[in-house]
User: Which sequence fits this backbone?
């Protein structure tokens, strides 16, 4: 279980550490105009590269009395175009409040991680937080003020891959905003279409189904049944889990329409059926049992919702024992995929 850090002085120190890590990696700096819901303002943008399209960048500007600002963008260094914010990760300064999206959390060993509340805004205003979290990878629960909060875990503050995790998350948020904005427009179109009545018949205008997977349940605990004494902490495991899911999704680009949710690691709709993937960071018996149950239950829910057959895939670092694999493959039709890490990449069978 994670705990949310609420001490303002500690948050300020952690935010300074975050800024230092970003400056060490993003060395090309130039003044650019960034657009935000509040208007257009000039900022010092720290880019990863000196040239090229869609270069990752970070801007902080002067912190206001009420918040510590972190804007993550993608833009072309040296250009004159306006830059849109992909995601804001702002922290409270003068008073602790949940209205800001940025959160620092810590695990049972005191390791600090960066997380996000799922607060995103697009054309027409803010989106519902649960809609956003339902589409983000690595959703976890954390204790805040004695209650559980659902957050999207981004990465470890001291992890060597923090910067890449941040911009992977920023790109993910940009895609979520795009998809939710499209659904919002579809909803408006449906509301504006009226039933036209005539003396002979009634004309009913139908709206096409979207492939958005509704939140299946409140189940989003990745480590149910795991011992807290394991060598790798829950925080490290869930960060690793997100990287593996992201690599798998990238490898399946162009194979169909990819979707995910709090309950589902990855699903791809293609050619009249759904490929459902459940990723586990270990091949322990507990992870295999959990993955099998998730695939069976979630597969039925998706099949009923979309009226499509489901093919199920369990993604593991190594194959299960034969006594487990045979019934999974023969009786429950679970396909086994294994992966290996090569440098910073994950390669799948």
Assistant:
């Amino acid at each position: 279980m994670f705990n949310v850090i609420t001490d303002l002085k500690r948050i300020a120190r952690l935010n300074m550490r975050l800024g230092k890590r970003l400056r060490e990696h993003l060395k090309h700096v130039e003044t650019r105009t960034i657009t935000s819901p509040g208007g257009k303002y000039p900022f010092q943008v720290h880019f990863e590269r000196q040239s090229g399209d869609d270069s990752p960048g970070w801007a902080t500007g002067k912190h206001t009395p009420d918040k510590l600002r972190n804007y993550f963008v993608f833009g072309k260094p040296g250009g004159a175009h306006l830059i849109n914010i992909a995601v804001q990760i702002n922290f409270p300064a003068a008073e602790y409040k949940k209205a800001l999206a940025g959160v620092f959390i810590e695990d049972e060993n005191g390791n600090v991680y960066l997380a996000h509340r799922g607060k995103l805004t697009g054309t027409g205003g803010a989106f519902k937080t649960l809609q956003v979290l339902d589409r983000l990878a690595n959703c976890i629960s954390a204790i805040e003020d004695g209650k559980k909060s659902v957050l999207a875990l981004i990465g470890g503050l001291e992890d060597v891959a923090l910067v890449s995790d941040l911009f992977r998350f920023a790109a993910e948020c940009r895609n979520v905003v795009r998809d939710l904005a499209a659904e919002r427009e579809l909803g408006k179109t449906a509301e504006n279409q009226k039933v036209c009545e005539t003396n002979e018949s009634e004309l009913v205008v139908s709206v096409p189904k979207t492939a958005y997977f509704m939140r299946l349940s409140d189940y989003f605990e990745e480590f149910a049944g795991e011992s807290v004494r394991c060598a790798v902490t829950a925080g490290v495991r869930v960060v690793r889990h997100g990287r593996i899911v992201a690599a798998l999704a990238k490898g399946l680009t162009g194979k169909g329409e990819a979707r995910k949710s709090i309950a589902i690691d990855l699903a791809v709709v293609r050619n009249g059926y759904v490929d459902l993937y459940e990723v586990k960071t270990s091949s322990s018996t507990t992870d295999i049992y959990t993955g099998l149950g998730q695939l069976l239950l979630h597969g039925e829910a998706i099949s009923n919702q979309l009226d499509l057959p489901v093919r199920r895939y369990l993604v593991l670092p190594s194959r299960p024992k034969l006594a487990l694999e045979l019934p999974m493959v023969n009786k429950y039709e679970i396909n086994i995929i294994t992966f290996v890490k090569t440098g910073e990449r994950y390669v799948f069978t």
The two ends are 32 Å apart (CA to CA). Residues 212-348 form a domain with the Trna Endonuclease; Chain: A, domain 1 fold (CATH 3.40.1350). The mean pLDDT is 82. The first helix runs from residue 8 to 25.
